[in-house]
Amino acid sequence: MAKKQEKEVTVEDKLKTLYSLQQKLSEIDNIKILRGELPLEVADLEDEIIGLETRIKKYETELKDSETAVSHQKQKAKDSALKIEKYKEQLDNVRNNREFDHLSKEIEFETLEIELSDKRVREFSQDSKNLTEQVEKSKSFLEERSADLAQKKEELDGIVSETKQQEEQLREEVKDIESEVEPRLLQAFKRIRKSARNGLAVVMIERGACGGCFNKIPPQKQMDIKIGKKIIVCEYCGRIMIDPELVGAE
Questions:
Q1: Which of 185, 231, 189, 240 is nearest to 212 (CA)?
Q2: Cα separation of 124 and 155, whole Å?
Q3: DSSP assigned state of 245
Q4: Residue 193 vs residues 2, 4, 25, 71, 178: alpha-carbon distances, Å
Q5: Is the pTM above the cut of 0.70?
Q6: Measuring CA to CA, how many Å separate 55 from each of 6, 45, 84, 125, 146?
Q7: Which ranges in 96-181 belong to alpha helices (H)?
Q8: Which residue segments constitute the domains of the chain, with CATH numbers given?
Q9: CB 183 within 8 Å of CB 207
Q10: What are the pLDDT digits (tens) for 159-195?
C-alpha cells in the first residue's frame, strides 16, 4: 500500500501560521504591559529593603561598641579617682620630698586620665546619640518601604492571578503553532521579533505602506505580497509583511 503523502504547506499557509503566532505572542505582550513596571519595582524595593536591614545592623553594632566604650571610659575614670584618693592618703605619711614628688606626679597623671576619660565619654556619647538617631530614621524608612513593597506585591499578585490562566493558555497555543512552523522560518521570525521595538515580526500592509515602519512599498512588491506566493520582508525594518485580505483582516 502506498504511503500517504503529507499535504504540502504553501507559502500562504506559512504566512497565515506566522500571523496567528504573532497574534498570540502580542496577546502575551499585552498581559506583560498590563503588569507594567510592577515586577521591576517589586525587585528594586526588595533590594532596597535588604540594604536598609544591613545598614541598620551595622548601625546597631557600632552603637553597641560605642556604648561599651562609654562604660569602659567611665570605669577608667572611677579607677583613677580611687587611685587619687589612695595617693592623697599616702601624702599624709610621706617621709621625704622624693616620695612627695612621686605621689604628686601620680595624682597629676590620674587627674589627666580622668579628664581624658571624661572627654572620650562625651565623644562616645555623642556618637551613640547620632547612631541612635540613624537607627530610628532607618527603621522608620524601612517601615515605609516595607509597606510600599506589600502594596506593590498585592497589586502584582492581583494582576498575575487575573491573567495567569489566560497567559498559560496562550503559551500552550504558541507551542502548538510553533510546532507547525519549519525551524529555520521560526528562528528567523524570533530574530525579527526580538529586534522589533514593539515585538511585531509580522505586520499587515496599510495604505500601501509597511504596518511596522510605515514606509511606502513599491506597487510591484505590494502585488507580490497580495498574491502571497513568497515571504517578503520590509527593506526598511525587516518585518515580514502580509496582505490583510489573506488573514481576513480589515
A1: 240
A2: 46
A3: G
A4: 42, 36, 10, 68, 14
A5: no
A6: 67, 15, 43, 20, 15
A7: 97-178
A8: 35-178 (1.10.287), 182-247 (no CATH)
A9: no
A10: 888 888 899 999 999 999 999 999 999 999 999 999 9
